[in-house]
Sequence to fold (188 residues):
Amino acid sequence: MEASSAQEVSSLLKAWVGGNKQAFDKLIPLVHDELHRLAHRYLRRERAGHTLQTTALVNEAYLRLVDVKSVEWRDRAHFFAISANLMRRILVDYARSRGYEKRGGKMERVSLNEEYFVPADINFVKLDDALNSLSSFDPRKAKVVELRFFGGLSVDETAKLLKVSSYTVRRDWRLAKVWLLCELKDYE
Fold:
């Protein structure tokens, strides 16, 4: 996204928080394509026959965003971080509602792509459990995974949002991926 668009998103977010309902209507076209791309990336790795569609995931995220009243939006990166968290919750809730584990479904091995951390045949319930476990003893590393994987934020955007250096984000990202790989192997 261009710098001017990023600034426009940030101003519209602040106007929306200030009570300007039209700001949300102007914001949606600016963020829709990126949210759709992120949702598509998550869902293309889902199991065959998965019934949740990309547009449905984006629409559900919009519905939940409209209900978010207590967030003081700081900027574009903060918006996508919150959106990523919402999408993660939607996918996990959807997976749990489908009762994958209750039906004795086959446990799947989740591999981690070193460049993008996009697991093949991702099981969001397992990933969510692993992230919650990681968060219990290292919340920053879990947040880095959430922002990079679910939010699609760059290293620099993640560093800015977490108020740490890019080097710290890269280190946390590497360590978290290794930890998650070990944790997810335990599901096999």
